[in-house]
Structures are given as C-alpha cells and as structure tokens.
Design a protein that fits this description.
The chain contains 17 helices and 22 strands. The protein is of the alpha/beta class. The protein folds into 4 domains: 123 residues, 3-Layer(aba) Sandwich (Rossmann fold), CATH 3.40.50.1000; 66 residues; 171 residues, FAD/NAD(P)-binding domain, CATH 3.50.50; 107 residues, FAD/NAD(P)-binding domain (3-Layer(bba) Sandwich). Strands 6, 7, 8, 9, 10, 11 and 22 form a 7-stranded mixed beta sheet that branches. A 5-stranded parallel beta sheet has the order 3-2-1-4-5, sandwiched between helices. The longest helix is centred in the C-terminal third of the chain and has 20 residues. It is globular, with a radius of gyration of 29 Å. The protein binds flavin-adenine dinucleotide.
Length: 497
C-alpha cells in the first residue's frame, strides 16, 4: 500500500528551469546547448559541488564561465534560470488532492539555495509535508542511498513510497532501492499511472454519479459532458482500444486528418480538465445493486449510472505481414478506409455472402480493379455470374502471406499462387468487448449480437447506457455523439427533470 508520494521539483512540480535556462544561456553565448548543459550539470554534481551544498553558487558560476567561456554576471545568469522554474498549477492541484486523501506528500529535489527563493516567489512548499533538498541534506539523487534515507525520514518502507521524477537515471535508482516509481513524461500519462499506483491505497467508498467504461470517443465525450455538469465521474479504461489503432482519421468534422491516438490523448486531457477521474483498469463485472457496482480486479466502485463504451475488435485472419500493412493498405472498415482504396488494385478477403456484396459495393464506389477472395465459402451461382458480369475477379483459397516491402505488392496463397494487389479490404466481422456484461441479461438484436437501446442509448436495464459499436455503427463521430446524448440524458435524470 502506498502511504507517501514523493515528487521531484524541476520538470515535475515546476517547469524544468535548469535545463530551459541553461539552454537559453548556451544559445545566447553561441554554444552547443547539449554540450553546455552536460558540462553545467557535471560541474554542479562534482564531489563537494554546489548541488550538495558543499560549495557556493558564485564558485559554480566562476568555474562554469572558465570551462565554457560564457559571459554575464552571476545575477543575470541565475535570473535566466530562476524565471524559468514556473510552478505548474495543475501539479499543485494533484498534490492538494492527494494530501486531502490522507497521503503523506514529500519533495525530493536535486536543488540549491534557489529552491527557497523560488518558494518565496511562487509558494509551493506549504503543500508538502517534507521537502528534501540535496543542498541541505548534502546528498543528491545520484547517490542511491538518498532514496532510503528519505523513506526512513518519512518512517516508511520503500515499497510504501511512490516517487515521481522526469529523469530516467533517478527513476532507475529509486526503483532499484525498492520504491514505486512514475517516470513523468506528460500530465495525461502521469494521471493515469498515478491512479493505477494508488488503487487500493485510497479508500473509495464514494458513489459516483456515473462510471464510464471505455475511454474511446464515446466514453470520453460522455465524460466531458458530465464533467462540465460538475458531476462526479469515474472513467475506467484498460488501454489500447480500437481508436488508438486508427492512424489516419479523415472523416471527423474539422480535422482534415487526425490519428486515433491524438483524439484519445486530447480527449483525456479535456476530460481531466473538467475533473473527471480517469483510471487504468479492466472492468470484470457490472452488478446492478443499489445503483451499480463495477468490479476492477478485487476493487468495487459504485455509481448511480453506468455508461458502457468499450467498443469491439475486428477478426483479423492469420496472414503473414498483416500488421506490417495494417491501416496503411490492409483495411477492415469500409466507412473508415474505403475511400483510401480509390483507383487502386483491390483485393477483398472474406468468407461470407457479405464479402460478395462488399465486392459489388467497392466496385461501385471506389475502384474498377477488384478481386474477391473467399477462403472456403461457396456463393450461390447467381452471385458468381454477377461477379463475372461486373468484371470482378473471384478466387477461392487461403492466403498465407502479404508480399511487399514499403508498399503492398501481392497476396500469396498456401498453394504458392500470387495475385497482385495494392490494397486489401478484409471482411471477417468483429467481436464486442462485452464479456463483463454477461451476467446482466440485456436485450440484444435478432442475431443476439448488438445491444438494443432506446434513442438515448439506455439499455433494457434502467440506468445502464450502451454506446458505439456495441449498439450501432462503428465510427468516431457516432460514438462521440452517442456519448453526448447519453450524458445529457443522465444529467437530466440526476436533476430529476
Ligand atoms: C484501424 C481502424 C481505423 C479506423 N478508422 C476510422 C476512421 O477513419 N473514422 C472513424 O470514424 N472511425 C474509425 N475507426 C473506428 C473507430 O475507432 C470506432 O468507431 C471507435 O473506436 C468507437 O469508439 P468507442 O468509444 O465506442 O470504442 P473504442 O475506441 O474501441 O474504445 C473502447 C475503449 O474501451 C476499452 N475497454 C474495452 N473493454 C474494457 C474493459 N473490460 N474494461 C475497461 N476498458 C475496456 C478499450 O481498451 C478502449 O480503450 C477505425 C477503427 C480502426 C480499428
């Protein structure tokens, strides 16, 4: 169980003023910025150096001037650095939140007398229970024993402390000493990793207004709406959904082209700004009991409403090199990528009457050069004749490999045959990510596949909303629109309107 969270200062709580300032000084003096930065860092860290409070600031500037030939008074140079250590309000907000949940909050920083000065300019130390400054404790994070010293000073074992730093060396040393670690890269990934580490450490008996399962476009859009109604929202996502695989989305309003990853990262940032709690985890079960109980591993979270937006995953045939060309020239969704086959040599692979119909559709919309490959399905004679009339090639057989280096060139079959192609449209349907709904006996469509909902996306269970491909079309804009609709409706229900 984590009892304390220990933060680095520059690059985590504040902007990395040391690096930014030294880079500025290097450019001003016509020096190589990396070389100058490394020299300055090594000098400040040398045995008996400034960062461990064994020598003073003017000695460090003098040596740095001598070593690198830079100009400027101590006063001018230090100001260039200090003014760049700007405290990040969003990080202080995290610190306050964690403290209010009963965790001990510490800072472990390789700093100097500057830290106290910065605290006077932009107060932050009041938010920390303990501040360990290398200048005062005479040990930097280059010495691995500093991590155990800090834990002992907190009266905690290393495994009870979570350490956050943007420097990979510090992270490696802290981890080696047994602390839990987060390598800080950006706010979004930090918040997600923080939730993951703190799960089980913070009592969570809160009843959320809504738990949203799945941080794709549907879940995120719902989260943004509910967050902006100031509702208590928990968004749970296991990571790596379908949208994050979409490299070029060209059909989303106002975005000429955007990747799925960008949509998700921006959406998460936007939702967090409206105080949505985002947690990494896999939902294993949803139980209807005094509202809802949502199981993530051993842990149970409670809410008044649930939105399920967990999407699906396509069935991809086992063909060598599929993932090499996936999304570039191997496609699975006509609405998403049909357009990208325009005028190209196209092969459609599938194993059903839908695949035959897809061949006619693709020819009508995108390209005259279509070959249909069916693995073993035998279409009715009338369809075979129509394929011939339309000039669509038809092959029965099992492809095993896609040939091509930079570009797709051909499809090879198990009997060694090869057919030339520039693009492939695969048509093997997809599965829903819905295992955790199994016990709920929700109403499904005639095929027992998709869920039946009303026009606000409420399923046959009151209070449980289902969006996206689980209930209808599989498009970003549609999932997002459904998320907004469900959120507006849930808010009305919370208001009792
Ligand atoms: C290669 C590719 C290209 C595409 N191109 C386009 C395009 O150009 N235009 C377009 O509009 N659409 C495109 N799409 C489709 C688009 O990605 C989907 O319509 C969209 O993903 C649906 O959004 P969603 O929110 O319902 O689900 P998703 O985006 O699939 O998100 C669901 C989330 O739920 C999570 N999850 C699943 N199960 C659980 C669980 N048990 N617990 C916790 N979390 C869980 C997943 O990890 C995922 O993060 C493309 C899809 C793919 C794969």
């Amino acid at each position: 169980m984590i009892r304390a969270v220990m933060f680095d200062f520059g690059g985590v709580i504040a902007e990395e003023g040391f690096w930014l300032g030294l880079t500025h000084i290097a450019i001003q003096n016509g020096k190589d910025s990396d070389g100058f930065f490394n020299a300055a860092v090594e000098l400040i860290h040398k045995p008996g150096g400034y960062v461990v409070g064994m020598s003073d600031e003017s000695a460090w500037w003098n040596e740095l001037r001598e070593l690198t030939g830079i100009y400027g008074s101590d006063q001018k140079l230090r100001e260039i650095i200090l003014e760049r250590f700007v405290v990040r309000p969003e990080m202080l907000q995290v610190v306050y939140e964690l403290r209010s949940k009963g965790l001990v909050i510490a800072m472990l920083s390789d700093q100097t007398n500057w830290l106290d000065e910065l605290d006077e300019r932009m107060p932050f130390s009041h938010a920390f229970d303990h501040v360990f400054n290398s200048y005062k404790i005479h040990k930097s994070k280059r010495d691995p024993s500093v991590f155990r010293d800090a834990c002992s000073a907190l009266w905690l074992k290393p495994e009870e402390v979570l350490f956050i730093d943007d420097n990979d060396g510090n992270i490696a040393r802290a981890k080696h000493e047994g602390l839990n670690v987060i390598h800080f890269k950006d706010m979004v990934s930090f918040r997600v990793e923080l939730e993951e580490h703190l799960r089980g450490s913070i009592p969570d008996d809160k009843i959320y207004d809504c738990i949203i399962i799945g941080a794709g476009p549907g879940g995120l859009q719902a989260a943004i709406y509910l967050g902006r109604y100031n509702r208590q929202v928990l968004l749970i996502d296991r990571g790596g959904g379908r949208t994050s695989h979409a490299r070029h989305i060209e059909n989303f309003l106002t975005q000429k082209v955007i990747s799925g990853k960008e949509i998700i990262t921006l959406g998460m940032e936007q939702a967090m700004n409206f105080n949505v709690r985002i947690m990494k985890g896999t939902v294993l079960k949803v139980i209807e009991e005094a509202g809802f109980k949502v199981n993530v591993g051993e842990k149970v979270y409670r809410s008044k409403f649930v939105i399920v937006s967990t999407g699906g995953r396509e069935n991809i045939p086992e063909i060598e090199n599929v993932y090499k060309f996936f999304c570039e020239s191997f496609f699975t969704c006509i609405d998403c990528d049909g357009y990208r086959t325009t005028g190209k040599k196209l092969v459609i692979i599938g194993n059903s009457i839908q695949s035959v119909r897809l061949a006619f559709a693709m020819k009508q919309m995108y390209t005259k050069d279509v070959t249909l490959v069916l693995f073993f399905y035998e279409p009715p004679d009338s369809y075979i004749e129509e394929l011939q009339d339309e000039g669509i090639g038809f092959i029965k057989g099992r492809p095993t490999k896609i040939i091509g280096n930079e570009h797709m060139e051909a499809l090879e079959f198990e009997d060694g045959r090869r057919i030339k192609c520039e693009v492939i449209m695969s048509n093997f349907g997809f599965k829903l990510n819905n295992e955790f709904l199994d016990g709920l006996k929700l109403k499904r469509d005639g095929k027992g596949f998709k869920y039946v909902t009303d026009h606000n996306y409420e399923s046959s269970m009151k209070g449980l909303y289902i969006l996206g491909p689980l209930t209808g079309h599989d498009q970003v804009v549609i999932a997002a629109g459904e998320g907004a609709t469900a959120a507006i409706e849930i808010n009305k229900r919370l208001l009792d309107l």
